[in-house]
Amino acid sequence: MDHFKSYLSFQRLIKINPAQTLALGFLVLIFIGTMLLMLPGATKDRNYLSFIDALFEATSAVCVTGLVVVDTQSTFTLFGQIVLMLLIQIGGLGFMTFGILIALFLGKNIGLKGRMMIQESLNQISLEGMVKLVKFVVGFTFLIEATGAVILSIRWAPDFGFPNSIYYGIFHSVSAFNNAGFDIMGNFNSVTSYVGDATVILTLSSLLIVGGIGYTVILDLIKKKSLRKLALHTKIVLLITFILNITATIFILFLEYNNPGTLGELPLKEKILGAYFHAVVPRTAGFNSLNTADMTLSSQFLTMLLMFIGGGSGGTAGGIKVTTFAVIILAVGTIIRGRDDVEVMGRRIPKELIFRAFSITIYSAFIVLLILFILTITEKGVPLNVLLFEVISAFGTVGMSLGLTPDLSPTGKVLISLMMFIGRVGPLTLAFALAKANKKQAVKHAEERIMIG
Amino acid sequence: MDHFKSYLSFQRLIKINPAQTLALGFLVLIFIGTMLLMLPGATKDRNYLSFIDALFEATSAVCVTGLVVVDTQSTFTLFGQIVLMLLIQIGGLGFMTFGILIALFLGKNIGLKGRMMIQESLNQISLEGMVKLVKFVVGFTFLIEATGAVILSIRWAPDFGFPNSIYYGIFHSVSAFNNAGFDIMGNFNSVTSYVGDATVILTLSSLLIVGGIGYTVILDLIKKKSLRKLALHTKIVLLITFILNITATIFILFLEYNNPGTLGELPLKEKILGAYFHAVVPRTAGFNSLNTADMTLSSQFLTMLLMFIGGGSGGTAGGIKVTTFAVIILAVGTIIRGRDDVEVMGRRIPKELIFRAFSITIYSAFIVLLILFILTITEKGVPLNVLLFEVISAFGTVGMSLGLTPDLSPTGKVLISLMMFIGRVGPLTLAFALAKANKKQAVKHAEERIMIG
Ligand SMILES: [K+]
Ligand SMILES: [K+]
User: Fold this and answer.
1) Straight-line distance from the first to the last Cα atom of chain A, in angstroms, rounded to the nearest whole number
2) C-alpha count within 13 angstroms, C-beta hemisphere, residue B163
3) With an 8 Å Cβ cutoff, are A447 and B327 in contact?
4) What value does the mean pLDDT of chain B take?
5) Which of B298, B323, B324 sits opposite A373 (nearest CB)?
6) Domain that holds residue B157
7) Does any domain span residue A444?
8) pLDDT per position as a tens digit, B30-41
């Protein structure tokens, strides 16, 4: 409580907003992580990491992305791996708790209606309530991670031996819940050995869905007894998550059914599990049970779209978020039908939120295209789909790759690190800036119209 | 005058708006063109076009795109070529004059402020004024086209012989002013033989810039004596056109300077001419003096961005339009700085226009990505950059290609035809729908907020 109050005074003193505090905190964490990963004890066989490689790995962990320039299992010692796991856990939790702080500030800035929304979804706006909420988020995180770790430890006992399997269970449970996508399976393999293993696939996918859906949804589901009474936000996130996962599973199944590099050789049950996992992980876990590079261009394209969309707000997921996606789809549909108000499930979406959704989408597309353009210059000879996949993966903090990451030029590594950082804190900062923008400016210029479209 | 009034009564009778009338008119024109191009007399050596090929060619001409599945010069007889030229001319003029009608309707729908804008930029809103304006547009078109034809006919007299060069002059002048990109140079060569020829390059580029900048800008420039008094619309279009052309020239020069497939072997003067032409044509002429397929991926990417942006509203150009591009850039900049009003050159851009710009951009990106996704399924084995280039070229009615067009599958040809049509009438229809949306809906649902980003 007192700590939080003194944080607020400190913040007023140096005049930075919560989003900026988050960005700064992440930078410090990345710097510490970089130093730790460069220590001789962090890597096996004196394979000391270069500064750029260590920076890349630390950024990838803190931003829960999972893109890697070296194979985690064969490169890092136990110490190095635990550093990565801690960076993931602090990065994931830090993002969620700062999300709460930012939601609180948004509530203050957007007036009574905004506060009512936050009261409805969080049922708290007082500082006391917020501290309680942070405690809930932390407790919930550890509870779910522990559950996942137990299931995975038992499943993996025959494969990695006991008690070694406990470490594997904890590492992958933390990585999955935080949507980090780091694995210690070796040889850049991710979980491809378990493509048809229902226990591993369903445990990991449940962890990453729960982690990526956002704490407001979790809270709302816990507090409300009836489905009807759920907040609009909860309903939209659940519905879109469901639709995207089902649709993507069907598409991947259809597109890869006969592809010998992916689903082609598998029995039907494993085909379905493989398609389902690949439909779920791009938003934004980043594990893979199929070799993404061997997929059809259609599936790679679909994966890129899913990576760009990402998960729910206020969770461990990245991307523009499912609500943003839903609102722009609804808005464009409304416009084409020549109507004015964007309506869904008997409710009207406020104009300012539609504007915010458009802004975040366009800003995200800008950043992705800008970094992509620079990479076409620095990474000569790499096909467009491989480059675009890498950039969107970094932006959405997904961590899937068509295999480019270890082969990136030093400039490329710095650019992708930057993209991971921007992808993580950018949209949130933007949402914050947008909420602040409601304060009127002092001088009003005269309006003048121009022709659009 | 009377014709126009009876059109208005007819329109009220069947309840379609001008944008829908335009779409219908284009469909009828495409159908007539398809039939004409399938006639035995339209093609040389009994190379009768299939229905799909004729449909593709007619759509490409009416929508002034310039993508071709067969080489225009070697496939079509003089009759066939003249059919194409007429389709281009009617398509181009039809679009411009309907643009005026739509601007008039927009003016009626968007209230007093909107009318003042149209009065300012067109200086007319009465029916009499509109008929005068249409006459001006038609007269101006023929004047500029005639000028271009004379210069090109003289230049080409040694190459194609007199009076044959007159035909070449007229065809390419009409094609350039209407930003159609069709050529009769043979062998899919476009104007690559004239990469270093200042007369050809500067004449064609001047024609396509004037045609693509929009009649409101032309009118404003003719009527206003001083640069200071120009409408905001005019200033923005001129400034962005200038910036895009200069920046793109420098980038292309830099990116292709040593590329032996494009600028590498040319003397400096021709390098600059080649870079300049390639910077200008993607918005949205579609001629090419360099082989686009041999360009670096960076240049191809830059070309795609330019094709997506397109030219000015109310001209022969396609794409989202330079004003839309300017407004979203300004809006995102404003948002990131945490400010509220989008301001430029001492004026404020109305909120509703910003919304319109966002909508058109997102809608366009949707359509491009949707068609692209289907093409990854129908055109197996084609790299992403080649497919994306083709789709954006069709959407922006540009007509450049990395060589895919003649090799498209029948489904692919239909999809690209559809894309050319949507790219041509879609954004305008959308702008119209958006303007109508200002009418309030009868039933208002309760507002409910959700978390965005
Ligand atoms: K990830
Ligand atoms: K064109």
Assistant:
1) 52
2) 1
3) no
4) 83
5) B298
6) 2-436
7) no
8) 999 999 999 988
